[in-house]
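agent> step 3/5: call structure_predict on target 'Orotidine 5'-phosphate decarboxylase' (Kineosporia corallincola).
agent> reason: downstream docking stage needs a structural representation; sequence fetched in step 2, passing through unchanged.
tool.input:
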Amino acid sequence: MNALSAESFGNRLRTTTSARGPLCVGIDPHPALLAKWGLDDDVAGLERFTLTTVEALAGQVAVIKPQAAFFERFGSAGVAVLEKAVAGIREGGALSIVDAKRGDIGSTMAAYADAFAGAASPLAGDAVTVSPFLGFGSLRPLLDLAARTGRGVFVLALTSNPEGGQVQHAVNGDGRTVAQTVIDAVAAENAGAQPLGSVGVVVGATVTGVGREHDLSALNGPILAPGIGAQGATADDLKAVFGPALGQVLPNSSREVLGAGPTVAGLREAASRTLEAVSSALGS
Ligand SMILES: O=C(O)c1cc(=O)[nH]c(=O)n1[C@@H]1O[C@H](COP(=O)(O)O)[C@@H](O)[C@H]1O
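tool.output (status=ok):
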C-alpha cells in the first residue's frame, strides 16, 4: 500500500464491511488456546496459531485484530510474528486493527505514532487502538500521522471490563462523563468526513445503558464493540446496547471464534456463524 496516498481508513472500512459483513475477529493467542490447539506456549506455537488464523480468515472476514500483548510476551521474536500477521492480513484482503492500547504524553506518543501509523512501519496495520486517559490531546501526534497515512485510530471510551466505569463514568465539571468527552472529541475529528470518519471509539458490547447515558449521534465514525462471546455479551444484546448507533458498530469476537480451531475449516465455520448472528442483530 502506498500509505501516503491511500484512501482513508473510514472509506476502506465501509467498503470492506459492505463486501464481507460487519465482523472483526481478534487474534488473541492465550496460553490456554495454544494448549487447546495442541501447540506449545512458545514462539513456534504462537506463529502456527497466528498464521493458521490468518490463512483461515484473512480472505473471509472484514477485519482482524491481533492483540499485541500476546505477541510481546515472547519479546522481539513474538513481535516479528505480529508483523507477519499484519502483512498476511493485508495480503488476504482484510483490514487489520493492531490492538496495542497505547497512550503516553504527546512527545512519546509521536514515537508510538511512527510505530503504529508510520507509512513504512511493519507494525502498522490499517488501524490501532489507543488509550485517551492521559488526556485526549496527548493522542494528537498519532491522530495527525494516521490521518496523513490513511490509517484509523480506535480510542477507548467505554471498555468492556467491569472496572472501566470507575474512570469512564466519572462526571466532569461540565456535567459530561469522561467517556462522553472522549466520544465528543472523536466526533470533532470526524466532522465532515464522508461516508465515515477514520477515528473510532471502543465501546464494549457488555456495557449497559450506552444509548441512555451517552450520546453517539455526532460520532460519524466506527464503534468497535468487543465482548461478544467469552465476555458474555451476545449478538442479540447489540441492539439494546447501541440503539440508534447500531449502523456504525463493528462487533469483535476473539476467543469464541479461535476456540473452534485448530482447523481452517473450523475457524471459518465459527466466523461465519458469528457473522450471521451479528449481521442479523445489526440488520445488515
Ligand atoms: O480494544 C479492545 O479491543 C478491547 C477493548 C475492551 O473494552 N474490551 C476488550 O475486550 N478489548 C479486546 O477485545 C478482545 C476480546 O476478546 P474475547 O473476549 O476473547 O472476545 C481482547 O483482545 C481485548 O483486549
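agent> step 4/5: record observation. The CA atoms of residues 104 and 273 lie 38 Å apart.
agent> proceeding.
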